[in-house]
Amino acid sequence: MKKGTLYGVGVGPGDPELLTIKAVRILREADAVAVPDTGSGDKAALAIAQSYIAGKELILCPSPMSGNRREADACYDETAKILAERLSNGDNIAFITLGDPSVYSTYCYIQKRVAAMGFETQTIPGITSFCAAAARLGESLCEGKEPLVIVPASSMKPEAWIGLPGNKVLMKAGGKMPALTAALGRIDADIAAVTNCGMEGESVARGAEELDASAGYFSVIVVKERH
Amino acid sequence: MKKGTLYGVGVGPGDPELLTIKAVRILREADAVAVPDTGSGDKAALAIAQSYIAGKELILCPSPMSGNRREADACYDETAKILAERLSNGDNIAFITLGDPSVYSTYCYIQKRVAAMGFETQTIPGITSFCAAAARLGESLCEGKEPLVIVPASSMKPEAWIGLPGNKVLMKAGGKMPALTAALGRIDADIAAVTNCGMEGESVARGAEELDASAGYFSVIVVKERH
């Protein structure tokens, strides 16, 4: 029997209209849709893709929320095993992921395992949260000679990125927001943030003083150098 | 009369299936489609969007190709004037742009001018060339604690970015490819490149030795740190 293919499908940052034509086609053609499930009931990727996959079988995939490496690896191994069984039976599976599958996604850990088990995988790119945030702000991220640095803000101290050349996008600030807002208040740059871009409860802040220290996982902060 | 809105529409990097549902809707609803035109006959954004805008009026916008600042500003001023006249008449105009409008696009220069003239503008994000290249390679761009640096390779010397922390995406290498391939041959990193991603003549290179020193504007090079 022909083995199935695993598709990593980026569903974008929030607005269901920001899926690509290709993502929608792959979701519709798939035999089942795999959904990262942290057990907390918050399945953001599923909420975004919902209208395109009505009636489709869902495969809930154990997904880690803590930073514990061993626990995370166990989750990914378990997910790869579940998916491999279905792919062996010839099913094509679409694994949905927030934003783009190549930018800080769980999918990359799953893809490596499933590919190493001999299955075909294919990635369908998605709109990143930072492109959507820039669009919402009506701002560019980088122009001309400016580099752009994407910073995983929960695991990099401000000292580690503040001096880097170019504009910055701070992602996944999470619990580090208080330290981050303090650091951003001290630098000379144009700062803006979008929380829950394209989702319920969307909000925009301009200037370090407007940043909400309680803003969480779904915040993107854009820091632009002044010329 | 109600003034029209200028939409900056990202059409993605090449594959017409990589437009978003929203981009297609905006293109279909627009009264006219504005197209950057460098005069060289190479209208890449138009080729990508073609199937969605059959029969639609096109507005060709003077677009600079040289790096001359004054010439570029004159082009943008002229384009803004052309668009403002149409917006004043109540027309909604979709300005199409390769990839995403917030990442090294001509649109941002136009948008600033048109907004300053009092018109409403709205940005529709697109798939970036680097997300599409990563998808094509089956590789992530950044995982966990890794930052990602987007480098405008034609205007930054290798010394200026090679030592920066994290993975790198080199864009717009253009005529700097020979110097770039030489620099990449000397560093310890995983290197892969996609040229014309999703377009005719697509090619993939893995390893610095496979890089084509003649690869041009539509090449994206991904440089990943080894851990």
Describe the protein in words:
The structure is a homodimer of 227-residue chains. The first copy, chain A, has 227 residues and is α/β, with parallel strands linked by helices. The first copy, chain A, folds into 2 domains: 5-124, Tetrapyrrole methylase, N-terminal domain (Cobalt-precorrin-4 Transmethylase, domain 1, 3-Layer(aba) Sandwich), CATH 3.40.1010.10; 129-225, 2-Layer Sandwich (Methyltransferase, Cobalt-precorrin-4 Transmethylase, Domain 2), CATH 3.30.950. Chain A has helices at 21-29, 44-49, 69-88, 107-116, 129-137, 158-162, 177-185; strands spanning 5-10, 32-37, 57-62, 93-97, 120-124, 148-152, 167-171, 189-195, 203-206, 219-225. In chain A, the strands form 2 sheets. A 5-stranded parallel β-sheet of chain A has the order 3-2-4-1-5, with helices on both faces. In chain A, helix 3 (69-88) packs across helix 4 (107-116). The longest helix of chain A has 20 residues, at 69-88. The relative contact order of chain A is 0.17. The mean pLDDT of chain A is 93. Strand 6 (148-152) of chain A pairs antiparallel with strand 6 of chain B, so a sheet runs across the interface.
